[in-house]
Design brief:
Number of domains: 2
Shape: globular
Strand order of the largest sheet: 2-1-3-4
Number of helices: 8
Strand content: 5-15%
Keywords: Transferase
Protein name: Glutathione S-transferase
Structural class: alpha+beta
Distance between the termini: 23 Å
Radius of gyration: 17 Å
GO molecular function, one term: transferase activity
Order of helices and strands: EHEHEEHHHHHH
Organism: Pseudomonas koreensis
Pfam families: GST_C (PF00043), GST_N_2 (PF13409)
CATH class of the largest domain: Mainly Alpha
Number of strands: 4
CATH topology of the largest domain: Glutathione S-transferase Yfyf (Class Pi), Chain A, domain 2
CATH architecture of the largest domain: Up-down Bundle
Largest sheet: 4 strands, mixed
Length: 207
Amino acid sequence: MLQILGKASSINVRKVLWTCAELDIPFEREDWGSGFKSTHTPEFLALNPCAMVPVIKDGDFTLWESNSIIRYLVARYDGAHIYPTEAQARARVDQWIDWQASELNRSWSYAFLSLVRKSPDHQDSGALVAGREAWSRNMTILDRQLEKTGAYVSGEQFSLADIPIGLSVNRWFETPFEHPHLPAVSAYYERLNQRPGYRRYGRNGTP
């Protein structure tokens, strides 16, 4: 059985859990990370030298890095319905997965750490304003894309890209500051909530 190492509250672990739910993959999960087993032990570092969750063990195969893991799972467990094999359709899914990691994920970091985690190292008012503005700019990009597709981030059908993007959208609505009005993002948020995997793993790791 697939083993997932990482605490369920981690946004990156939740990518893997939600993907498993979409593909009906049975798994066992162990709590690793802050507040649980340390990822800095020799045991864990042998699996992931970066000391980060998630890590999966699929038989004798070990893999880390959440976006690599979810791409592996759809390839390994018949996930072509959410990760197409045709080159151009797959590229459109991949570009949004990569955009989430390179642009959207970075833009919400400071505001989230300041307003939700209450990190003492992230309380500079100027940096917080800049962080909120950068996050809002990226969410506006997403809103325009969702307005164009009328449904999901890469097109009319749910795809693998909606897993990292959808989790980031949850984080957007759960972070307390005045958000710009983004109707397509709001509709997308409610659309995702119709999926059992999202209801279970998309709302901060709780049903």
